[in-house]
Amino acid sequence: MAATLMPNKSDATSSSTAAAGLSRRESQVMDILHRRTGATVAEIMTDLPDPPTYSAVRSVLRILGEKELIKHREDGPRYIYYPAKPTETAREDILAHVVRTYFGDSPEQAVTALLRMSDVDLSEAEIKRLRNTIRRARQSGR
Questions:
Q1: CA distance 65 to 90
Q2: Residue 135 to residue 35: CA distance in whole angstroms
């Protein structure tokens, strides 16, 4: 499972997907499928660093299908592959794993790290949205 949490997606998700039992190449393919919300073998090959053969990509897709991480649909003569789990759900699962593993289960430490690594100042609108999100989380008992 992969997520689109940081600009360097393959680095951000590799440790999380490794924890989920995925190889580096499987993680890369999952990253592509989440980023594109679905892709053909040719599109996956275009996005892969040092792309393997068409057959090798198909093998990775078969394995991901056996692990029930992806699905496919027919689009004329080709298949479109897409994540079995919605990207938002995968993102939350991966983030929960990162917070548990690297921040001692402390959302405060994780948010602090995110804010420290950001070189961009948050706009007033972004700060307002964050405050509203925190308020709603408190109201729902989180």
A1: 16
A2: 30
Number of domains the chain is built from:
2
Residue-wise pLDDT for 90-129, tens only, equals: 889 889 999 999 999 998 898 888 888 866 678 899 889 9
In terms of domains, do 74 and 20 share one? yes
Token pair recorded at residue 120: 């961009």
**Residue pLDDT, tens place only, 53-81:** 999 999 999 999 999 999 999 999 999 99
Same domain, 73 and 15: yes
Against a cut of 0.85, is the pTM above it? no
Contact present, 16 and 41 (Cβ < 8 Å): no
Host domain of residue 50:
9-83
